[in-house]
Amino acid sequence: MPDAEWLRWQPQLELCKMPLGEVLYESGASLHYVYFPTNAIVSLLYVLEDGSSAEIAVVGQEGVVGIAIFMGGGSTPNQAVVQSAGMGYRLHADAIKAEFERSIPVMHLMLRFTQALITQMSQTAVCNRHHSVDQQLCRWLLLSLDRLSGDELVMTHHLISNMLGVRREGVTEAARKLQESGLIRYARGRISVLDRPGLERRVCECYSVVKNEYDRLLPSRVAV
């Protein structure tokens, strides 16, 4: 973000804790804030009537949660839940809408992120339909690691199965295969990635499609 816009934003940003499992917004509810995770990860989930769910995207330090506000919808059919605890900032809906309409650089930045997010959602749908559970798990681990500073995630098999929309037994078997291959270590709800290059060799093409699009649209500094 250009320095002038950032200086104007700073007084309006509110630092907030983002504990594991916190629901930032529910399906169909009016959104009052956008959130900018700093070291937390937020899952965007679609929850069915029977209570089952599937993750459609993850957002971390690269992005913003609550795009429906500046895109004009005001609400969305998905749910946003903190997947990895941490901190973040939030900005009131009126403020982000005003900035989106006022500043061309802000509008371009938010639209580029939205395009990247749509790519992730689309590729997730393809991956869930055509690729194995262990490939999906590799994709999910790598996307999560890209949004964290370390190589460890706090996540149970039950929560991962809810994210991927598959049976818990399938996740357990996939995690066992990755552990036996020396790629990860799983114990007491913590997953440590031991061999990231190995995960990258094992993952399906979906991860690189998403990563390349984020790198293209959201480099660290972009002329707008």
Describe this structure in words.
By secondary structure, this protein is an alpha+beta fold. The chain has 2 domains: 3-116, Jelly Rolls (Sandwich); 132-203, Winged helix-like DNA-binding domain superfamily/Winged helix DNA-binding domain (Arc Repressor Mutant, subunit A). 46% of the residues lie in helices and 23% in strands. It contains 9 helices and 10 strands. The chain has helices at residues 3-9, 67-71, 93-102, 104-130, 133-145, 157-164, 168-180, 196-202, 205-217; strands at 14-18, 23-25, 33-37, 41-47, 53-59, 79-84, 86-92, 152-154, 184-187, 190-193. The strands form 3 sheets. Strands 2-6-4-5 form a 4-stranded antiparallel beta sheet. It has a 3-stranded antiparallel beta sheet with strand order 1-7-3. A hairpin with a 5-residue loop joins β4 and β5 (53-59). It is globular. The mean pLDDT is 88.
Radius of gyration: 18 Å
CATH domain class of the largest domain: Mainly Beta
CATH architecture of the largest domain: Sandwich
H and E order: HEEEEEHEEHHHEHHEEHH
- CATH topology-level fold name of the largest domain: Jelly Rolls
CATH superfamily of the largest domain: Jelly Rolls
The assigned structural class equals alpha+beta
Parts with pLDDT < 50 across at least 5 consecutive residues? none
Percent range for β-strand residues: 15-25%
Q: Summarize the biggest pleated sheet.
A: 4 strands, antiparallel
